[in-house]
Write a structure and sequence with these properties.
The protein is α/β, with parallel strands linked by helices. The chain contains 13 helices and twelve strands. The protein binds adenosine-5'-triphosphate, iron/sulfur cluster and magnesium ion.
Length: 313
């Protein structure tokens, strides 16, 4: 059963005379208990999708499409109904865990505040959070509560945020770049952390990441984004081992494990997107058709792909 259904989600930000097309007609489902990954280069629209889901985008964002969570259309909810979902039934681990914690407040106080703001009795919430911190490999959590965020390592801050996010027993956990900026040891710890969240808590997760190793460990299915669109969507093992889209192939080749061959060129301006395939200027397989006609995403070998090449062969 699908817990989340996103249909034709588009997000634009006004910019001078035009607009930045951050996300264009993105559609995907997340099944209950599934870990769904979104990968893609910087600026491809991954975080904007996550923020749109929680209606956390800036006020000037122009959003269209539908997002249905557990049978409820999120865009039609009243602010009071949305508050019941945001942070409780859907929890976001933000892209920058350091920025998510107030540097002037001791860790324990911030945890308490989060519960208070959401109408949960502080003592009960704290007990839950301490238990989770232990389970998520944070030793001596009581002592950590007496420290300030800058006294924790990046990996510890991330575990703290994970414990806070899971304390509300959300049905959907969104984690945005959970391994970004972590040293190799903390990174390996994060992989272990998410494997545990997936296997022991059976959480449904949306994992936004550049980290193909993390995606490989925990994702069931993956959507690949390029210039605001999904260009390929399939089982994680297929995306990571036998991708069909030239852009996905380039991403995989750029991974250190696969020889670190950089993807040449840059993604197009989002104010004036090119005609045809958005990837054609960088694609080694581009044909005349590719610069003329924009490919639609289509079913292909059990997955979905947006590329003329697949259908010309
Ligand atoms: N508030 C905003 N105003 C204008 N443009 C924005 C805003 N937020 C995002 N964008 C643009 O939307 C596009 C998608 O941004 P997004 O943050 O989703 O990328 P991302 O894939 O998460 O990148 P990264 O991997 O670097 O986190 C980018 O071109 C970005 O510049
Ligand atoms: S549509 Fe053409 S340019 Fe675009 S990815 Fe496929 S082959 Fe490359
Ligand atoms: Mg991002």
């Amino acid at each position: 059963m699908n817990l989340l259904e996103i249909r034709e989600l588009s997000v634009e930000f006004p910019a001078g005379e035009g607009s930045v097309k951050a996300v264009s007609r993105v559609s995907f489902d997340i099944r209950e208990g599934e870990t769904f990954g979104i990968i893609g280069e910087s600026g491809s629209g991954k975080s904007v999708v996550g923020l749109a889901l929680l209606r956390l985008l800036p006020a000037n964002a122009r959003v269209s499409g539908n997002i249905c969570f557990a049978g409820k259309e999120l865009f039609f909810l009243k602010p009071s109904e949305l508050r019941k979902i945001r942070g409780k039934r859907i929890s976001l681990m933000p892209q920058n865990p350091a920025g998510a914690l107030n540097p002037a407040l001791k860790n324990g106080l911030q945890i308490g505040e989060v519960f208070e703001r959401r109408g949960i009795e502080k003592k009960e919430g704290m007990k839950k959070a301490l238990g989770l911190m232990k389970k998520l490999f944070l030793q001596d959590p009581e002592k950590l509560c007496g420290l300030y965020p800058n006294q924790l390592s990046g990996g510890m801050r991330q575990r703290l945020i994970a414990a806070m996010s899971l304390s509300f027993e959300p049905e959907l956990l969104i984690a945005d770049e959970p391994t970004k900026g972590l040293d190799p040891e903390a990174r390996a710890g994060a992989v272990e952390l998410f494997t545990k969240i997936k296997n022991e808590y059976g959480k449904t997760m949306l994992l936004i990441t550049h980290d193909l190793d993390l995606a490989h460990e925990v994702c069931d299915r993956i959507a690949v984004m390029y210039a605001g669109e999904i260009v390929e969507l399939d089982e994680a093992s297929k995306i990571l081992h036998s991708p069909g889209h030239p852009y996905t192939k380039g991403l995989i080749r750029a991974h250190p494990r696969n020889g670190l061959v950089p993807l040449s060129g840059q993604s197009p301006s989002r104010i004036k997107l090119p005609e045809g395939c958005f990837f054609h200027e960088r694609c080694r397989h581009a044909a005349v058709e590719c610069s003329r006609r924009h490919p639609e995403i289509q079913n292909h070998k059990g997955g979905r792909i947006r590329c003329h090449l697949q259908f010309l062969q």
